[in-house]
Amino acid sequence: MAIDPKVFEESKDLDPAPLDCEDRAAVEGALVAWLGTWKNVSFIDGEVIGYAGQMVGRSRHDAIDVALQQRLGADAEAQTIAASFLFTYWAWKPVSNTFDLEAFVRALDTFASQQPAYATTALALYSAATNKASGLDEATRRRLRERLLETRHEMRSKGLYPGVLVYLDKLVKPPFANPR
């Protein structure tokens, strides 16, 4: 059965039921198609994309993060879209073993700190580092925390992204892991 990509536009209620009755390939295809509609627009609405991340995260489908990494691309726009999704997705699902986390971290060095991709990547990595649902080992969490503290310093020194800094400021004092 085909799933209508518009289901993600109405994901604010976070009900994963429309996804749970579909197979993974259908969900992945519809999600990638819907996320692709956010390319070449004047404004990428991270809040709407985040609701979709929660919806998919709460569904029975795993390893969607890998599909996004493989199918959306790595340009600044794709990174912004994927990171907006993963920020909330990783609050519910683990970072997949085959997800290239190091490539995702390198995006912080690839994009200028003024680009939205930089800020959304930091938020997604914050989610991976702090949510127990992400399934990362302590050494990886510490490494991410250290990198995010560098990112925090860069943002603060340039007066960038006060909304992102609200999250990154939480990394200064332990405990920096959410109970979920």
Distinctive features:
single chain, 180 residues, mainly alpha, globular
TL;DR?
The protein is an all-alpha fold. It has one domain (5-171). Helices cover 59% and strands 0% of the residues.
Report on the structure:
With 180 residues, the protein is mostly helical. The chain has one domain (5-171). It is built from nine helices and no strands. The chain has helices at residues 17-20, 24-36, 46-58, 64-72, 76-89, 101-110, 116-130, 138-158, 162-168. α2 (24-36) packs across α4, α3 (46-58) crosses α5 (76-89) and α6 runs antiparallel to α7 (116-130). The mean pLDDT is 91.
Provide the succession of SSEs.
HHHHHHHHH
**Class inferred from helices and paired strands:** mainly alpha
What proportion strand?
Answer: under 5%
| End-to-end C-alpha gap | 33 Å
Largest sheet: none
Helix content: 55-70%
Q: Count of helical segments? A: 9
Radius of gyration: 16 Å
Shape by Cα distribution: globular
- Whole-number average pLDDT? 91
> What is the total tally of β strands?
0
List the helices and strands and how they pair.
Elements: H1 17-20, H2 24-36, H3 46-58, H4 64-72, H5 76-89, H6 101-110, H7 116-130, H8 138-158, H9 162-168
Helix pairs in contact: 2-4, 3-5, 4-5, 5-7, 6-7, 7-8
